[in-house]
Amino acid sequence: MTDSLVARIEDAATNERAIRFVTATGPDSYDVDRVTWAELHRDARSWAAALQRRGRGIKPGDHVAILGPTSRHLVTALQATWLTGATVLVLPLPMRLASIDEFVAQTRARIRAADSVVVLADSSLAEFLDPQPGDPPIVLFDEIAKAAPVIARKYRRPPDDPESLAILQFTSGSTSEPKGVMLPHRCVIANLDAVRHSAGLRVQSDVMMSWLPLYHDMGLIGFLILPMITGTDLVLAAPQDFLSAPSRWVQWMSDFHATVSAGPNFAYALAARAMSRLHGLDLSAWRVALNGAEPVDPETVEAFAVAGARHGLRAGAVFPAFGMAEVTIGGTFPVPGTGIQLDVVDRRVLETDRFAAPVAAGAPDARTLVRLGRPLPGLEIRIVDPGSGELMEEREAGELEIRGTSVTTGYYKQPEATAAAFHDGWLRTGDLAYLVDGELVICGRLKDVIIVGGRNVFPEDVERACAKIDGVRAGNVIAFGTERRPGRAREHLVVVAETKSDDVDPVRDEVSARVTDAVGVPPEVVLVRAGTLPKTSSGKLQRSLCKDQYLEAALDRV
Known about the structure:
Rossmann fold; 28 strands; globular; seven-stranded mixed beta sheet; Luciferase, domain 3
């Protein structure tokens, strides 16, 4: 089969399977717009014809920025752009309106950094673009939709070019400034073919369901392009509909008998709480519940499995995986149906010797980590010493490196960043990890490890220790270390947590006690107002920016 999205889209648009656009209309109600992939493709061809004939015309090699909420128009615009041979850049939405000025600045920076020739936008969001001299023209979805039927027959199909860029995916910026990851057609096709094989996707009978944002790689590539190029049934909702009422996710899974879905770890925590209050769900069809995009917490997965069991969810459905934008989307997958597999190690030995020494569950200083499966077909992984590059043995922790058919060709117009990202042809991920029986285990991010008294303290352990404290907003805790200060013999551990409590002293004391018990290091605790911790456009906490704000006394302290 060809390594072109256009050819794969055309092949998939020959059956009657469909994409269902689900829009919440109330707490317990929603509308459904069912569109077959064939109907969507006909619309996209018309839009492509309109884009090709507008102004100078969109042509192969052009970069097109797209801004819009999850909708039929947005999906049509995405496919239409590929049908012209152009590259897609999906812009993040202004989810946090409190920082609208920052959103406008970041959006303009992305548009210009990508050399976009045009911005396709939903009319409801066009005002946020605030065009300035030198910015590319803005074309509204409604304008394209109006012009498209008139010139639909004038569409000119571009030649297939596996090496041309299909997607310019900006990284989330959780650890650094966002960079444009270049993903040619061949990388996208290679990775999605591997995902389809490793997840055991059943095109004829599976129903995929997603509320993930389409400006994030897991939502765009894993849960839109994959069904689009295979013709698999898809139920698509907007992220804001899930975030405003997390119970909707599991309700839609039940109502549509969906079989495959995904979300970051925090979403499963919200779903577990929602399922404990709901009745009458049928989740027996759900067979792949992919957990990725952020560290997988074993307790969260266990709570999700227990809460779902009373609704027919099989324990084997949980599917912890590893992926990143630089490998297109999927990196390692477990065997479908096996559920969560854990590795319990001695935390002290891991921190001091960077060796994952197995211990019994419940042993003193035990740390439970999640196995994330083996590399997808076409990919190889290895663990190396982050300093020397020397290959590490099994259970020795070092930097994860990846190479293979779906690894990015580099960062757009950033040759220095591209060169720094590779080591002897292997992509340096920046993740601290080890291997067990060929399976990947992630310990944390190398840049985020806090070195205290010769130990490597992982911020994830600190943040997880605070997850169930009354007065602390779950999932809104950031831990980091600062450089030594006068009078301090070691690096200083800081914990910044959001709170809604008016009585902050007991909350601060409890955070300090829990963290000290968990990692043996007493922290400085900083409580801030709800909704003020810095996050990326995809909702990931930004440790480095939070640290900067702490050092600059810019945190909104309670």
